[in-house]
Amino acid sequence: MTEISVIIAFLAGIVSFLAPCILPLIPAFLGYLAGAKVEKTSRLTLFGHSFLFVLGFASVFSLLGVLLNGVLSMVAYDLQVWLGRIAGIIIIFFGLYLLSLVKPRFLQEEHKFKVAKFKSKWVTSFVFGAAFAVGWTPCVGAVLGTILALAISQPGQAFVLLAAYSLGLGVPFLLAGIFAREFLVLLQRNGHVLRYFNIVVGIIVVLLGVLVFTGKLSLVASGLGFLNRVLLG
User: Fold this and answer.
1) What is the pLDDT of residue 192?
2) Angle of helix 77-98 relative to helix 197-214, nearest 10 degrees?
3) How many CA atoms lie within 13 A of 195 on its CB side?
4) Which of 99, 101, 105, 123 lies in disulfide reach of 202, CB 3.0 to 4.6 Å?
5) pLDDT value at position 168?
6) Neighbours of 216 (CB within 10 A)
7) Minimal CA–CA distance to 147: which of 11, 1, 23?
């Protein structure tokens, strides 16, 4: 089940990148980090700033994973069962939020941290990444909250799950840095698809929450195994 949870965490990172309140802002964001418009900045420079940004938020998530790992690994089995149920409820709640069926105030508001600009733009990129990890925007907070709840349901795996989430969120950022111009064109052509994004993700998150609550997350692995056998004949 651990392997499936890691895959889910990785995919959740990609989902966070594709969120409607994040994806359209990526070109402007890359230009902000580089200090110039994307069209006027070299691929190497954009990639460098993207890498430092990713390193910034990955460091924060990994540290959080280490702290949770140390605390949750000492939890007794009976308590683990209840933590799984609580985590399932939390995940379902986040799924309902993505479907706009519940609208809690603390998720509606953006939590931003002002980042002072340093003399070095490279340092600013790293610090900005760390601030991004701490001050989640509402849509990223729902998906990341789901992974944190999943980590609570699996004591001892928090670091691995948050590292996988960081990787899933980081890889698209790096690709966007390398292929910024192409990414901008693709976004302009297909931006209308984003309107359905939260609905699809919300349904998936609710189903995930039900599986976590009932302790049946392993069914995902069974389903993938069956699908693999069908496709491979």
Assistant:
1) 67
2) 160
3) 4
4) 99
5) 93
6) 13
7) 11
List, as one string, the DSSP characters of 100-121. Answer: TS---HHHHS------PPPSSH
Secondary structure (DSSP) of 18-51: H-TTTGGGHHHHHHHHHTS-GGGS-HHHHHHHHH
* Confidence class for position 115, pLDDT limits 50, 70, 90: low
pTM: 0.78
Q: Which residue has the tokens 């605390």?
A: 71
Structure-block tokens of residue 113: 């941290």
Find the length of the chain.
Answer: 233
Contact 107/141 with Cβ under 8 angstroms?
A: yes
Helical ranges in 101-196 per DSSP H: 105-108, 121-134, 138-153, 158-178, 180-190
Kindly compute the dihedral angle of the four CA atoms of residues 149, 152, 154, 155, in this order, to the nearest 10 degrees: 160
> By the 8 A CB rule, do 20 and 91 touch?
no
Query: Residue 195 gets which letter from DSSP?
Result: G
- CA 97, CA 180: separation in Å to the nearest integer? 31
Letter string b/e over residues 78-106, b meaning 16 or more CB atoms within 10 A of that residue's CB: eeeeebbeebbebbbbbbbbbbeeeeeee
Count of structural domains within the chain: 1
